[in-house]
Design a protein that fits this description.
By secondary structure, this protein is of the alpha/beta class. The protein is built from nine helices and eight strands. β7 and β8 form a beta hairpin. α2 packs across α9, α4 packs parallel to α5 and α7 packs antiparallel against α8.
């Protein structure tokens, strides 16, 4: 891309950021507000960064928000900050790597709130910053970002409240993991073909793809595997999240009216948070925006899609 093209692209992005900043100041009208104080939203990894900001914005719109944190004491402190601002926020310890922790959280949620309406899968980790690309932590990255997210979805679906507006699941992902990416290209054509064929995609295929990468990461052959060259472990984990989102959208669409669940994923952008080593270029307010917008969309059957900056993008 030449200098002029880069400048043009930057101007376009800046203009879109300004548009969204303006949209965020416009309150939802009464006929758009399908939710109330009884609407319960669960945000994983809600104690800091994008998760904290998503919690703040959703509570600001009048929902009841459950902020979860792996470290219970940190979650309590984060919740206090929001409660002191007059927001209706509760918290609970949750480690998405720990099945017992998920089970304890599920029981508490059912007993105290009767279930949930919105699930934001924000909890995630990354160990590579800048041009670093080690796969030393690939297993914990994939266990958290993909398998942990999957465990949460499986545990929360039975607790999602029936509604004419449909329950919603939003998975935080990244543009780095797009199958159509040119800058961070997936060269493994077999994997690319499998993940692109949504009609025949299965959960087992997605798990197998992740496990194949982890095996290659551990035996040192991953560079010959055709995996994306940048932030490889993080990208593969989110490739799996994206594929699982599409797989689950198809599966959940078969549920009867009143019990349907919409599931989508979004890229928050390169946000200035711990996940990027605070090297990001956009604010947490901007990074949280599309996730909140997706959660609150009026009654429209939008599911199995990928979004960024309030617009659908290609997988």
């Amino acid at each position: 891309m030449g200098h002029k093209d880069k400048e043009k692209s930057k101007d376009k992005k800046d203009k879109r950021r300004q548009e969204i900043s303006l949209l965020r100041t416009i309150p939802y009208s009464d006929h758009q507000r399908w939710w109330s104080k009884e609407t319960v939203a669960v945000v994983t990894g809600g104690n800091r960064g994008i998760g904290f900001e998503i919690s703040r914005q959703l509570a600001g719109h009048g929902l009841t928000v459950i902020l979860t944190s792996r470290d219970a004491s940190v979650g309590v402190e984060s919740t206090k900050v929001l409660q002191e601002g007059g927001l209706d926020v509760d918290c609970h310890q949750l480690d998405i790597l720990d099945s017992a922790s998920i089970s304890n959280f599920s029981e508490w949620l059912k007993e105290k709130f009767g279930g949930l309406d919105i699930l934001i899968n924000n909890a995630g980790i990354n160990f590579n910053f800048g041009s670093d690309n080690s796969v030393e932590n690939a297993r914990i990255v994939c266990e958290t970002n993909y398998f942990g997210t999957k465990r949460m979805i499986e545990a929360m679906i039975p607790l999602m409240k029936p509604s004419s507006h449909c329950a919603r699941i939003v998975n935080v992902s990244t543009r780095l993991s797009r199958l159509s990416s040119k800058r961070n290209k997936l060269e493994n054509e077999e994997v690319k073909a499998q993940l692109s064929d949504v009609d025949n995609l299965t959960e087992e295929m997605i798990d197998e793809m992740v496990n194949k990468f982890l095996q290659q990461a551990e035996d040192g052959t991953w560079k010959e595997g055709g995996w994306p060259p940048s932030h490889t472990d993080y990208t593969v984990s989110k490739l799996a999240v994206n594929a699982y989102t599409r797989f689950m959208a198809k599966k959940l669409s078969e549920r009867p009216d009143g019990e349907k669940i919409y599931i989508n994923c979004y890229c928050p952008g390169w946000v200035k948070t711990a996940l990027t080593g605070y090297a990001g270029t956009i604010t947490v307010e901007e990074g949280a925006d599309t996730g909140v917008w997706l959660s609150l969309l009026p009654d429209q059957a939008i599911t199995g899609k990928f979004f960024a900056e309030r617009r659908e993008i290609k997988f």
